[in-house]
């Protein structure tokens, strides 16, 4: 009998199985590939490290980071990409790189740096799922980590100041969303009728942006104008997670 695969990840709300993009990427890929994950949602009783969430634990391994977890699942024969051509495989890598460069900084900013969103939504949500005194410390550390990640990718000259960086990352993110919308078109998934790695990444990045109710919604408003991307998220939620979209 195969060793159990256990995924420790942040939990859900607002109709999502997880509000955390990296966790959602892995959860979606597991659904698409048929990997039998036992999902352990982090709460205030969990004593593991939260810096590397999501974490996949097997009999012999502990693996973090979505790309490494997905590679491990593929080696266990849980492959959502087996029907893709070589060109589609190359396109997958290119689009994931685009998402991480152009969309991720704005997603991180929306959750962790935009102060109204952070203090009214992100910080209370995450703090309520951490034991005291971590609940006082870790959200701030996660916010600083998000800002550092943004500035590492976008803070080069001539964008020295955060205000300039903010304007650029939101421009880039909107362009990226437009590109994704054009690429998806009227298809159910990015490479036809079956979901693949790229669909897991796009879903993981877009679904929290689409569903979480924030006071500052600059990027969310743009996404909601792209009806095919919203339908894409709703279809995956309905088909693979059966989460009531009214929850939250």
Automatic annotation (TrEMBL):
Origin species: Capra hircus (Goat)
Any one of the GO BP annotations: protein transport
Ranges of residues in domain Mitochondrial outer membrane transport complex Sam37/metaxin N-terminal: 23-142
Protein name: Metaxin
Domain named Metaxin glutathione S-transferase: residues: 173-236
Compartment(s) of residence: Mitochondrion outer membrane
InterPro entries: Glutathione-S-Trfase_C_sf, Glutathione_S-Trfase, Metaxin1/3, Metaxin_GST, Mito_Protein_Transport_Metaxin, Sam37/metaxin_N
Pfam family, one: Tom37
SUPFAM superfamilies according to UniProt: GST C-terminal domain-like
An example Gene Ontology CC term for this record: SAM complex
Assigned protein family: Belongs to the metaxin family.
UniProt keyword Cell inner membrane, yes or no: no
Protein biosynthesis keyword on record: no
Top-level division of the source organism's lineage: Eukaryota
UniProt keyword list: Membrane, Mitochondrion, Mitochondrion outer membrane, Protein transport, Transport
